[in-house]
Amino acid sequence: MTQSFRLESGGLINRDKKISFKFNGKKYFGYEGDTLASALIANGVHLIGRSFKYHRPRGFFGAGVDEPYAIVQLYRNGETEPNIKATEQELFEGLEAKSVNCWPSVNFDVGAINNFLKIFLPAGFYYKTFMWPKSFWYKIYEPFIRRAAGLGTASIKHDKERYEHKYEYCDLLITGSGPSGLASAYSAAKNGAKVILAEDKSRFGGTLLTSEVNIGNQSGKEWADSIISELKEMPNVTVKNRSQVFGYYDHNMLVMSERISDHLPKTKKFHPKQRLWYIRAKEVLISSGSIERPIVFGNNDTPGVMLSSAAKEYLKVYGVLVGKKPLVFTNNDSGYETAIEFKKNGIDPIILDTRKEPQSEIIEEAKNMNINIKNSYVVVAAQGYKKVKSADVAKISDNKEELGSIENIECDCICVSGFWTPTIHLASQSGNKTKFNEDIDAFVPGISKQNEKTLGAANGIYTLEETLKDSFEKGNLLSKKITNNENKISFPNVVEKKSTVHDKFWCVPLPKGKNYKRFLDFQNDVAVSDIEIALKEGYRSIEHVKRYTTLGMATDQGKTSNLNGLQLVSKIENKVVPAVGHTTFRPPYSPVSIGAIVGREVGKHSKPTRKSPMHSWHEKNNAVFVDAGVWLRPRYYKRGEENLFEASKREARNVRTNVGVCDVTTLGKIDIKGPDAAELLNRVYTNAWLKLPIGKARYGVMLREDGIVMDDGTTTRISENHYHMTTTTAQAANVLSHLEYYLQLVWPELNVNVVSTTEQWAGAAIAGPKSREVLKKLFPKSDVSNEGLPFMGYMEADLFGVKAKIFRISFSGELAYEVNVESDNGYFMWEKIIEAGEEFGIQPYGTEALSTLRIEMGHVAGSELDGRTIPYDNSLEGLLSKKKDFIGKRSLSRKAFAVEDRQKIVGVVPLDKKTSIPEGSHLVKDSNAPLPNPKLGYISASCWSVEYDNPFSLAILKDGKNMIGKKLFVMSPLKNKVIPVEIVSSHYVDPKGERVRS
Amino acid sequence: MLHIKCPHCGMRSQNEFSYGGDATVKRPELGKEISDQDWDNFVYNRKSLRGKHWELWQHLSGCRQWIKVQRDTATHEIFKTLKANEEIS
Ligand SMILES: [Zn+2]
Prior knowledge:
The complex is a heterodimer of chains A (about 1000) and B (about 90). Chain A has about 1000 residues and is α+β, with helices and mostly antiparallel strands. Chain A is built from 23 helices and 50 strands. In chain A, the strands form 13 sheets. In chain A, strands 8, 9, 12, 13, 14, 15 and 28 form a seven-stranded mixed sheet that branches. In chain A, helix 5 runs parallel beside helix 11 (about 465-485), helix 8 runs parallel beside helix 9 (about 360-370) and helix 21 (about 770-780) crosses helix 22. Chain A is elongated. Chain B has one helix spanning about 35-45, and strands at about 5, 10-15, 20, 50-60, 65-70, 80-85. Classes of the chains: A alpha+beta (about 1000), B mainly beta (about 90). The interface between A and B is medium-sized, with 26 and 27 residues. The structure holds zinc ion.
């Protein structure tokens, strides 16, 4: 296929480089510098998809970010991406795109479609249609909504591309490289300010690329090029194209997405696909320009109806004709500029101007070129189905209410201009309360809330000279304030054609007896009639009307539809537009890919992985790891064909009979120093701490102020004013913040310092009846006898030349020690323990065996200290000091905590001594009781008791104190299990705690 | 993302901090008798104010100091920041 709509010459494309691409499976050619849209139009492709609700043919409407129609599914380098605007996607060799399988698709039930079409989807169709009948939900409504929720299909494959985040600080961030952006960036840069200039498109210059102006004896484009190349050379300036500032957040932070590789067939090695910039700017200059808005008329969604500015851009930037028989329908002078461009390229346009006798330099030029101009004329309706074939036009009365007789004009495109809407999104996001400007019939930024100023067309200033003057000045003033430096620039001579006022006309009345669909929102198929229905049904707030009708929703966020929607509401409601107000602008301005938002925080990079110094030993010895917070811990060490259950039983049994060793490096460790250290502990823990002797450890429980258990652990007095606190792995960070809170804010008079030493120490728990034998071999010079190192004792010792700390503490309930050495010596320590323990049958054990050991001992852990239990619930009430106050103590006397049948920890054993009890199951009295069956408690932790060789669980049970010996049922609807159980003491093994003292 | 001036470190982004609640709440003195109502007010009852509000933040990924920040809860404007030991005026 030839590029039959491409001009012989002209445009900014590189005609020396032909590019092949595919659309809907068919091969086409374009040029380097094309967008997918410009290349398709050049090839005469005008039908790009189907509309969202009514399945009407869709073509191109714009030439950039405002495009509501031309959304495609893109295929690039083996990946696919939905929601790509053909008007933004740059052409690359091998690009493939498909029309989005808009609803209804082939997969969709055909009968259902007919049903929907009968209803013909009026306003509020989401709400009305999906209410009934209920049986339609799964088969019809849900798939429908799911399909409708987005245009195109997201890939479910892992995204191999790389996305980056970048943080940047600057003096001035300037969003948009049109005349106002360039001028302000230039004067600010000359004053030495650190400037970031961001341009959404691939080419810098904005409207200067398409307008017939002269700046300092250069064409607009030449001037833009020279400014950009000068800015690029300046060390204090960052110039970025393909970069859209899409969000303005608090404290002058803006987020910009830079599309680094999307225009290339394949991302270069080590390059990201996109980069998200978090920019903290001292001053923000919004130079985002304006977007042309359409005039509403019958069948105005027919392919071939498009914005007049887009038609001009296709001509001037891409050398492409959007049609060969163009009709220009305008209420202002912009349409004339488009018509003039057509004429210059040998095409005869017809201009329909809603105004009666407008006069200006531009209009004069068009007249001099013998362009056919029909004043007081409107397009009543476009004719043609897949492409405009002709237009029904008519004269319109001065009051714009009466149409003359309908005439038909043959045309292949209708270029429409309803004047310009400032792009105020960023200003509005910043908190700026926008105001309505009667002169331009649109909202402009009002008083700044953050450090933002809006320039040029975005501020409703539509003449180049005024724009440049204002922008040079603002750039100069704001940068001077920051840099205290001023380099005045002489203002260039500006030549532009003068235009005259626009006509506030925006919607063509329906001719008698005709009922054309007149669309306001092209992406969502929202027609004038939909808004009328919504208002008739009582919707008043513009925010409600938006949600009810979907006006201004979806990927284009109503860039072309918002104002006309407001005009309509204000007309029906008989209010002025500012009284109706506009819906809130929220980031992002334009869709941002999820990959860019996530950045590098994917997979293993989503959080750090912490490994103990002994990790490689575990790896070498067949450890199967488990995530414990961000730590990787051995869950069990696999021997032969063992599974988790078998291995953990073996390991636990070996601890009970011989000796085991467990990596406990992950435990939180906090070093506490200072003369008031004991006092701090005494306030933080529930038990007494003032009299702990040096060289002794003590178990402690700490509460939150609301009386809930926060954490538990042992703290050891190393020397007079030095303590070593341990916390659970999970709570380590919270406990440190907790201590800092009280020391810094509540009791600053306490002379204590706390610091995390979790990473400084490697820890190994040596547990089992033979652990002392192992210790003796490890520390031959130290007295580790029961007298020399009694239960809860502490000593420093020499481990073959390495300094070690030995704590005689036990989580397993066996005679046990925890040995700590500096992290660098962790591996050495571990090897020595294994070596020394060999003759005693030592085996490493993982977290699964560790759990088994603690559960059958009734030692509480995270699953019981789950943020909902008080000390009593965990049978820790014996640790509550009556003599002193401590954090959370006062809460324990609250009534709810003192009820007679308060929950308490118990043990649970299945009656058959065989059936495993799923964690999280509920305890009930009667398994056959009608639902909802009253729940008495829940299973917090389950294990296979190696001591008794049967299942055993811990549970938090209502009135647990009086339930010992009772028979209940464990119910797990998830596992479909009902298990008769007996309630026993939570201290299932060694209830007197003799072993730890042996 | 807020930009918070840590009195120890200077202007830093919000993601270095963690929020710590109302800075005007005073913990009752240890060992002192207190009514249920007063205790509940200390532990649970907070006003969700619109407007200027003194709150606590901890510079968690920085100097680890708890600081006091006067912020407008509606506009996010930050007026003042204080060290932990400085009194709210
Ligand atoms: Zn700090």
